[in-house]
Amino acid sequence: MRSVRDEQLVRPTVEDEVAAAGSELIGGPVGRRALPGRGWWTPVRVVALVAIGMFALGMVQKLPCYDYGWFFGATTQYTHACYSDIPHLYSGRGFDAGLIPYFDRIPQSLSGGMDYLEYPVLTGLFMQVAAWLTPGGGTLQHREQLNWLVNSGMLLACTAVIAVCTARAHRRRPWDALLVALAPAFALTATVNWDLFAVALTAGAMLMWSRSRPVLAGVLIGLAAAAKLYPLLLLGPLFVLCLRAGRMRAFATAAASATGAWLVVNLPVMITHDAQGFHIREGWAKFYTFSQERPVDFGSLWLVISQRTGDPLDGANTYVTLLMIAGCLALGALALYAPRRPRFAQLAFLVVALFVLVNKVYSPQYVLWLVPLAVLARPKWRDFLIWQACEVLYFLGIWSYLAYTGSGDKHQGLPAEGYQLAIVAHLLGTLYLCGVVIRDMLKPERDVVRRDGSDDPSGGVLDGAEDIVALGSAHRQRHAEPSDGGRVHWGTGGRAH
């Protein structure tokens, strides 16, 4: 006899037409052996194994570069779309020479102009551990290959963590995490850089918040922000949603924990002391000064404008800041005015997507930031795949453009106009996904997660909470007269309180 838990498990191949159609390739909709408690093949394990398999395929896609593209000829790594920062920075940032990030200045002969490592502290530690684990001896090419393999192994562990955390964040919808595992842009960009480390920490934070553990969630947000700055943006949605739900103590706990965790890992590298007293270490500050000083760069809306107009847009930092402030205020107002309190994953996805859309650079691996959040915000296969198609197009576009600019008179690849179209495709794809998420917020009956009457299953302390602060129609609904024997439907949890 099936348990209640078995009966309540949501199966995308039953409720999602695209997932159902796609399942015919592997034998049809999911059956009883895929349900919890039915043998070893639980949803979480299946999702993790699929994610590992897709990661391995992504490594195979890098094979042309592993053999020769990273070392012989500048354009091969672009024409084969197999570029990775990892082998280049192993020697280019002095790891091969035994230099310590943030403390040792990089010789100009190695870095080509970068005097210190331009990554946050925990990412630098990740790179350093991989360098320590890389066997010495042999040619530089051989050591760079080995270092890429070591980093890939560590990033594979991050991939498994992301898949498991996403699958467990919503207890009744573990199969949604297959979207993470099967995302083509995820596999293609997984070993381009070290972003998966920060994404894994962020996925862990989302899981801990879904389990109503704000301390652990905050610690992981702080650690993630020490690896990549974007996870700090999650504190904004938490603040607005906790304000609306009257859960400010949970927010304060998470924010304090995040601040403490960030300081614990940054202060030892951040502060230096000499005869003149304490100072901010120049090597530690490099990430922040580099982010501030870098010009308009690849993948951004600003690059399209700059190339089309010939204006270098020296004021891009100001434009980005103003748009971020305006966008965050708009999202905050939306969260307070929406007829039902938005789910945490919805607002988290939107604020990170806003940062991606207005930032002055969009590296192809930045899509990794959004994939787990998109799955939790809008677990709809059609919309997710439309967005992924745009991201794959951009992935191919940027390498083809770099092949064009680096091939001299041969002009292999895309000219600037073609690359601009690839950027526009990325922007439109992300805007499309943002649009359907916003529609779900304004029309909660369209939200696939809430079809069964749920409120915010991955929202932790927010799940089922009554509205305390709300505006507009949400405010009027909050103060509506009881209409069913004294019970008021608050419009937040699909349940009466």
Description:
The chain is an all-alpha fold and 497 residues long. The protein has one domain. It is built from 24 helices and 2 strands. The chain has helices at residues 4-8, 12-15, 17-23, 43-61, 63-69, 76-79, 85-92, 108-111, 121-133, 140-169, 178-182, 184-189, 195-210, 214-225, 235-245, 248-270, 282-293, 301-309, 316-337, 344-358, 367-377, 381-406, 416-442, 472-478, and strands at 271-274, 277-280. It has a two-stranded antiparallel ribbon with strand order 1-2.
Brief summary of the model shown:
This is Glycosyltransferase family 87 protein. The chain is an all-alpha fold and 497 residues long. The protein has helices at residues 4-8, 12-15, 17-23, 43-61, 63-69, 76-79, 85-92, 108-111, 121-133, 140-169, 178-182, 184-189, 195-210, 214-225, 235-245, 248-270, 282-293, 301-309, 316-337, 344-358, 367-377, 381-406, 416-442, 472-478; strands at residues 271-274, 277-280.
